[in-house]
Amino acid sequence: MPAAACRNTIDFAALAAEIRQWAAELGFRDIGIAGTELGEDETHLLNWLAAGRHGEMDYMANHGVKRSRPAELQPGTLRVISVRMDYLPAGARDGWDVLGDPDAAYVARYALGRDYHKLMRNRLQKLADRIAARTGPFGYRAFVDSAPVLERALARDAGIGWIGKHTCLIDSRGGSWFFLGELFTDLPLPLGAAATAHCGTCTRCIEICPTRAILAPYQLDARRCIAYLTIESRGPIPVELRPLIGNRIFGCDDCQLVCPWNKFATPTTEPDFAPRHRLDDSRLVDLFAWTEAEFLQRTEGSPIRRTGYPGWLRNIAVALGNAPYAEPTMQALAARQDDPSELVREHVAWALAEQRRKQAAHASVSAGPAPGAG
């Protein structure tokens, strides 16, 4: 590369074009440049927090308004370079197929492979290094879901996609199966054009949500969201929501699976996002049998580690309670009735009661009508 240039001689439009090229070489599917004004998004965030829809996620309210004011989070920030990396794994068992198999375990597509945080941070650092080689030292900070950042709003303003009615980001050319990362910078790069919304009158994501967590377009109550209940929440899953979770043991993708724009999604070519330990096609009873040592070994470098072992068993117990009655299911649950975790014991007891109820109903149907009835 040429020697670093003096900042007042830099052609920032040309630099932006080079950054886009470098990002593509580093495996980012798309890139855009946003400003730092997020006034409307800040109001939306504050209203959401005031309504308590963040549940136990106290970190969402921490740091005041730094989440919506990039220059306060990272002083000197003028622009935000937003990047996208696709994660839909090629060759994974079809999501609808897994959801339709009540004895199978559904894991959100983003969590089937290795954790994306470190991978994307490393790539962002390499991007920053390339920029510095061209411009000389500059102020920057990389983020990958690691600090209070309104990443979807910034990505929208950068032109990567629009925020859909389910609150996920959607790209008209590639759907919504992607991660986001940011590089806050003090370089006065030219701004991209903000993406415009194209959900139209479609409400499929609202209608498909198993727990009705999408209260209205762009209004998500995390306390009812299966992703929150199975990942973020550390306590008992509300009894009334357990039957609605089905066989989803880590996250939920229904709103993305049903989105028409995902017909344009293409599988990732990133090897790290390929399914590990057959998590795209595993039986609930098999995963429930993992010891804590097996859980730690098989989730090393995986987003699933976030639940912790008790949370993992809690989630699977609920799914087993929702499964059709089967003796192996009953045996698997009974083996954990005395689990050291009170959280696990509670959910196992619930699941056993559900299985016994189904067993009784099954026996009643098998017996047929009493002699002389009718």
UniProtKB/TrEMBL annotation:
The keyword Translocase does not apply. InterPro entries: 4Fe4S_Fe-S-bd, 4Fe4S_Fe_S_CS, QueG, QueG_DUF1730. It is found in: Cytoplasm. GO terms for cellular component: cytoplasm. [4Fe-4S] cluster 1 binds at C199, C202, C205, C259. Pathway: tRNA modification; tRNA-queuosine biosynthesis. The active site is at D145 (proton donor). Its cofactor is cob(II)alamin; [4Fe-4S] cluster. Its EC number is 1.17.99.6. Binds 2 [4Fe-4S] clusters per monomer. The keyword tRNA processing applies. Cob(II)alamin binds at R67, D145, L169, L180, C252, D253. Residues 190-219 form the 4Fe-4S ferredoxin-type domain. [4Fe-4S] cluster 2 binds at C209, C225, C252, C255. GO terms for biological process: tRNA queuosine(34) biosynthetic process. SUPFAM superfamilies: 4Fe-4S ferredoxins. Keywords: 4Fe-4S, Cobalamin, Cobalt, Cytoplasm, Iron, Iron-sulfur, Metal-binding, Oxidoreductase, Queuosine biosynthesis, tRNA processing. Monomer. Catalyzes the conversion of epoxyqueuosine (oQ) to queuosine (Q), which is a hypermodified base found in the wobble positions of tRNA(Asp), tRNA(Asn), tRNA(His) and tRNA(Tyr). Belongs to the QueG family. This is Epoxyqueuosine reductase. It comes from Dokdonella koreensis DS-123. The lineage of its organism: Bacteria, Pseudomonadati, Pseudomonadota, Gammaproteobacteria, Lysobacterales. The gene is queG.
